[in-house]
Amino acid sequence: MKYSTLSSKLSDSPTLAMAAKAKKLVSEGLDIISFSAGEPDFHTPAQVKAAGIAAIKKNITGYTASSGTPELRKHVARWMTREVGVEYAPNQILVSSGAKFAIAAAILATVDPGDEVIFPAPYWVSYPDMIKLAGAEPIPVETDLAHGFKMTPSALEASITPKTKMVLLNSPNNPTGAVYSHTELIALAEVLARFPEVWILSDEIYSRLIFDGKKHRSIAAISSNIAERTIIVNGVSKAFSMTGWRIGWAAGPKELIARAGKIQSHTTSCPSSISQSAAEAALQMDDSFMADWVEQYSRRRDIFIDLLKAVPGIKPFVPDGAFYLFCDIRQWIGKTKPKGGKLSSCFDAAEYLLDEAMIAAVPGDAFGAEGYIRFSFACSEDDIRRGVPRIAEAAGKLK
Ligand SMILES: Cc1ncc(COP(=O)(O)O)c(C=O)c1O
Question: Would you tell me the crossing angle of helices 98-110 and 126-133 to the nearest 10 degrees?
Answer without folding.
Answer: 40
